[in-house]
Amino acid sequence: MAFIKKLAHITGDLIVDGSIEADQIKANTITANKFSGAVEEEYRAYAESITMTSYNTLYTLHEFDHPATEWEIAKGRSIDANVNYQLYAGTTSNRTGNIFTQVEVQVPNFWNPNAIALAHHDSNPAQYWQRVYMVGNHVNKFPSNQVLIDLQNPVYKSFKNLRYQYDFELSELVTNGNFNNTSDWVAQDGTLTVPYYGKLEGVSGGANKAQISQAVSVTAGKVYRLNYDAPVGSDLYKIIVSATADPADKISYQGDLAWNAVTGNNVQEFVLEDVTQVYIIVQNLDVGNDIAFFDNISLKELEPRTWVDISAYPTNPISTNSVLYSGLTTGATAGTYVVVESITHGISNNGSYSFNTTVPVSAYLGRFHRDMKCRIRAKHQVGAVQYVRLQQMEVNLHSRIVG
Amino acid sequence: MIVVGYNLFNTEDEQIIATIQGEYEILTDGQNAFLQMIEDFKDNENIKQFFWGIRLSPDEYRVTAYQDNEV
Q1: Chain A residues contacting B, CB < 8 Å?
Q2: CB distance A158–B54 less than 8 Å?
Q3: Would you say A225 and A303 are in contact if contact means Cβ atoms under 8 Å apart?
Q4: pTM for the whole thing?
Q5: How far, in Å, CA of A178 to CA of A190, rounded?
Q6: Tell me: the pLDDT tens digits for B5-59?
């Protein structure tokens, strides 16, 4: 019979002369001489001395390849460059304009789009923009330029306002948390009334602290936010998240889920593990005819979400939901160079014959493993100057395991 | 909406003018039009680049890719 042992704990050191195989290893710290599959890979490129004489004409500053990752592990790939330009005006008269620097990648002959996540329609925050969300953190799967929707009828779209939010609040789980009346709460060793806020008064001479409680269905393993108000500076209370209506069965997660209220709004966040129902208990601080005032008791599940606004001209590209893919190639044909990132930088000679400036440019290509041909190009729109010249450019090519 | 066009060098004022050749809703229509445009204009030495882009609104489009014209 196969040997099965769960939740084994070792206190002290475990020495293994051979190897350990696992689907997942979690640790606070790992110290190693080498990771065979590199977590991060760093490469570089360098160029200098490219003279751009013509106005508004694109010049290639450098061409280079972003190397495929070790072991073909899909990693987040980026290109970061610091481009040092010299504006040579050849006059002390004022010369002002812009330099455009862009990071480009060549569309390969074969490209397999990488899935990002299932996106759900949310709203239209502005004309021709559709806001969608994905459950979880997917920001590292978006390239800098575009997304792809619907592999059968491919639509490539620009996007903006990409962000991760860990705490999108789902629907309210507590009923009558604002105490419009006394329903939905079970009082014990005291009386619940609702003169304005919730008011709980214990029994004079009673041996137990008065409490009210309400059972709430939850999902094991999810994160929750508990809000509760203490509207009166005195007559405070304790709030407890318990497995039963008994405060003694309070749940622990990095400490007991029980807190004394302080005046004003109170907020707690915690994970509820291994339970599908909890009791929200409001308990007076003392026995006898102690009084507590409370209001706006709320429990909501927090859902991690990735938000992004997608170009929606002429209509919304997503009706209800659809899988988003990386749109790095923008749908352009093989061999075409895609502009992944473009930076416009203002420049002036400031009354000098020659003026130098450094422009940082950064492009994120998304998560994949393959070789990619890249180049950095630039043009200037500074009239009546001798030239704009690339003095030197340091390029960092980065690949890193991302979630 | 896919936008295809080219950057034309005007020899009189030595300015480069972006010219939209066509706009397409279907990806493959846009790709075919892009390749046809390159075939049609590849010998025009005043065309510096063919471009590929996306329309963001009736008044705005964004160039997302270039094919240099190697005359």
Answers
A1: 55-58, 104, 107, 127-128, 145-146, 153-158, 311, 313-314, 329-333, 335-339
A2: yes
A3: no
A4: 0.86
A5: 19
A6: 999 988 887 788 899 999 999 999 999 999 999 999 999 999 989 999 999 999 9
